[in-house]
From TrEMBL, chain A:
The lineage of its organism: Bacteria, Pseudomonadati, Pseudomonadota, Betaproteobacteria, Rhodocyclales. This is BMP family ABC transporter substrate-binding protein. It comes from Pseudothauera rhizosphaerae. Residues 30-303 form the ABC transporter substrate-binding protein PnrA-like domain. GO terms for cellular component: plasma membrane. Residues 1-26 form the signal peptide. The keyword Coiled coil does not apply. InterPro entries: ABC-Purine-Binding (IPR052910), PnrA-like (IPR003760), TAT_signal (IPR006311).
TrEMBL record, chain B:
It is found in: Cell membrane. One of its GO terms (cellular component) is plasma membrane. This is ABC transporter permease. Signal peptide: none annotated. Keywords: Cell membrane, Membrane, Transmembrane, Transmembrane helix. The keyword Transmembrane applies.
């Protein structure tokens, strides 16, 4: 079956080659497929991946040709989309959400000549790897800003689901805020959705009414920043620079940057040097950045953040450095120790300073 | 002045041609949309309708996608025929995934051949149980089954979320909302080597056949139809309304539950919080486009699956926006309802005669 299709493909390619002037085929573009979990929109998780896809195209020019499918549910349909990319001559497939992992694994077994990468998962194999970014580093910095700027000492956090990545963000934000202002508390509202502007807005409004004067979110829309703008409080964006949705409210944002990683990966695959490894990049790898700081942030705070950012870049500082104590008062990390990636990846607790409880606390 | 006047006798032939007419109008509108989007309309239609079934694998994917749709739709049709409006097949589908997953996880150590039948039974029972809530509230308190069944979809979603974030979470899964992958004995065997098409498809065809026999060839089915088409006559004949409601909802719930079982025991191989994929809602369109008839539902489920996969491929090959599938689904239902209006009514110009 596959052989016949390959034969037909190469036969039609040969026919095409005969019909076209040689220059067009001087170098055949490598085809790369992207699978997106939500519509691209104009801010958020998928938007940043699509931005990176365009950066990849800009960097490698005619060497590559990219295609994408947006809004692919993390269920059985994903396997068909991923397989279709592989079967139609794409050499690399980026599946940009966790829920694609098991489908990537299955398709990767059927197409050993294609390279697959899935974002935020944990499995890998001969021809598939995973990648993610250390968003918690940015969260720590925004926490420091929040700790310095909050007057009410109540910070609001709208969150999607209690998975490790989200908990890392909430805990890093809390640790950052408490490092400069030990009295602050962080209140969390779970909206049980990655993208639900209505619920996100409602949650933000509730937090603001409870006295939060700075809010942020780990969900996919701009609703929280917009709510903050409306109520005259401050906010941090996430994924994308969301300043245009709240010019006054938006202090900065933890932004995601996959472009260099995509370009590097594609170059490695083309050169035959790519190895299936788990990539988890932070400020050091330029995969996480802060959006431009709002002029409302006082100069000493800017300097403080800039210094921390430099330390993150050089590896001289880790946000999860002990002692780390959870809500129950139990020490999770002893003084001076740095949390390793395995423990980070399995995080299932709130640190002291988070006022809310985890929904499935066991 | 334009007005609609009911036709005394709507053409029987046209009632059956209406879905075809709707499909043809959808195609025409589709051509116009592609043209407006600055894409080659014929190429667009090719990717939409031909490319998905270009080879055996494509056909197998189409049948795979159509399987849950036909299962949900035939169950709904039993109720819809009797004016029992179960809008919550989506929730019953999710409960079906829960019932089946429960069996698969509880017997994870066993490789008995009875696991799959047990999962099937648990899925059907859980779906039927979820549908029994609106049935009970309707027959006891006359609560509207449309609202109750719809609201229970959201409850079902939260229930699934709770399970996969809590007690059923894969301990090796890094805290992600998913169960462990099912073991081989809990996975449906593939019927076409090299594809994902599993035993659920032939099973779905059997359920369609059973649905046909029940609705068109059995006495209880006849009573259901009478209850739907002439409620007064049914009451006069002494047909129980309560029984109609119960049969309508339980059939819909059990069929949706089976569809849910087949999704987790088939292409997914585990339960996650993303299990509600909209099959239960899409099946409402399938049931109506299929004229609430088993054979019609078979065709309509294939058509809906084709529109869905076609939309995916139109994106993949032509970079069309992702919402294109939804636009086509909407067009299809719009034109079907529109055709029905003109088949049952006549458009008159001028004032009504006294």
């Amino acid at each position: 079956m596959t052989d016949r299709r390959q034969f037909l493909l190469s036969a039609s390619a040969a026919a095409l080659a005969a019909a076209l002037p040689g220059s067009l085929l001087a170098q055949e573009a490598t085809r790369i497929g992207f699978v997106y979990v939500s519509p691209i929109g104009d801010a958020g998780w998928t938007f940043q991946h699509d931005l990176a896809r365009k950066e990849l195209e800009a960097a490698l020019g005619s060497k590559v040709q990219t295609k994408y499918v947006e809004n692919v549910a993390e269920g059985a349909d994903a396997e068909r989309v991923i397989r279709e990319f592989a079967a139609s001559g794409h050499r690399i497939v980026f599946a940009t959400s966790f829920g694609y992992m098991n489908y990537v694994e299955r398709v990767a077994r059927q197409f050993p000549q294609v390279t697959f990468l899935h974002a935020t998962g944990y499995k890998s194999g001969k021809n598939f790897g995973h990648y993610n970014a250390r968003f918690y580093e940015g969260r720590y910095l925004t926490g420091v800003i929040a700790g310095r700027m909050s007057k009410s000492k109540v910070l609001g956090y709208v969150a999607a689901f209690p998975i490790p990545e989200v908990l890392q963000g909430i805990n890093a934000f809390t640790l950052g805020a408490k490092s400069v202002n030990p009295d602050v508390e962080v209140r969390v509202i779970w909206v049980n959705a990655w993208y639900d502007p209505g619920k996100e807005r409602e949650a933000a409004m509730t937090l603001i009414s409870q006295g939060a004067d700075i809010v942020t979110q780990h969900t996919d829309s701009t609703a929280v920043v917009q709510a903050a703008e409306e109520r005259g409080v401050h906010a941090f964006g996430y994924h994308s620079d969301m300043s245009k949705y709240g010019p006054k409210a938006h202090l900065t944002a933890t932004t995601h940057h996959w472009g260099d990683f995509y370009t590097k990966t594609v170059n490695e695959v083309l050169a035959g040097t790519w190895k299936p490894a788990g990539v988890w990049g932070g400020f050091k790898d330029d995969m996480v950045r802060l959006a431009p700081l709002n002029p409302a942030i006082p100069a000493p705070v800017r300097d403080e953040v800039a210094a921390l950012q430099d330390k993150l870049r050089t590896g001289g500082f880790h946000p999860f450095t002990g002692p780390i104590v959870d809500q129950a008062g139990k020490e999770r990390l002893s003084a001076g120790a740095v949390m390793d990636d395995v423990a980070l990846g399995k995080m299932d607790f709130f640190v002291q300073g988070v006022a809310s409880r985890l929904p499935n606390a066991r | 002045m334009l007005r609609l006047e009911a036709r005394a006798e709507p053409s029987y032939l046209m009632r059956w041609c209406s879905p075809l007419l709707a499909a043809a109008l959808t195609l025409l509108a589709g051509l116009a949309i592609f043209w407006l989007l600055d894409k080659d309309p014929l190429e667009g239609l090719r990717y939409f309708l031909v490319h998905p079934v270009k080879d055996l694998y494509g056909v197998s994917e189409l049948l795979l996608k159509a399987t849950p749709l036909m299962l949900c739709a035939i169950g709904l049709a039993v109720g819809f025929r009797a004016n029992v409006w179960n809008i919550g097949a989506e929730g019953q589908f999710m409960l079906g995934t829960v019932g089946a997953s429960g069996v698969a996880l509880y017997f994870a150590e066993s490789d008995s051949a009875l696991i799959l039948p047990a999962m099937l039974a648990a899925g059907a029972a859980a779906g039927a149980l979820w549908a029994a809530i609106p049935a009970l509230l309707r027959t006891r308190f006359n609560a509207n089954e449309i609202l109750v069944s719809l609201m229970l979809v959201y409850v079902a979603q939260l229930f699934v979320s709770w399970l996969v974030f809590g007690p059923w979470r894969d301990p090796m899964g890094f805290g992600f909302p998913q169960t462990a992958m099912f073991h081989d004995a809990a996975l449906l065997p593939v019927v076409l080597e090299g594809t994902r098409l599993h035993l659920g498809f032939p099973f779905g065809l059997a359920v369609l056949a059973a649905g046909y026999v029940f609705m068109n060839r059995s006495y209880p089915g006849f009573r259901m139809r009478v209850a739907g088409e002439a409620a007064d006559a049914a009451r006069y004949a002494g047909f129980s309304t309560r029984r109609t409601v119960w049969i309508g909802l339980l059939a819909g719930g059990a069929a949706a539950g089976v569809a849910g079982m087949m999704e987790v025991a088939g292409p997914m191989g585990q339960l996650t919080d993303k299990v509600g994929l909209g099959y239960g809602f899409a099946a409402i369109i399938v049931a109506f486009v299929g004229r609430l008839h088993a054979f019609g539902i078979l065709l309509a489920s294939l058509l809906m699956a084709l529109l869905f996969i076609g939309g995916e491929q139109a994106q993949q090959y032509m970079n069309l926006p992702g919402s294109i599938s939804l636009v086509f689904q909407g067009l299809l239902l719009f034109f079907l309802l529109g055709s029905d209006v003109f088949i049952h009514h006549r458009l008159r110009v001028g004032r009504a005669a006294a």
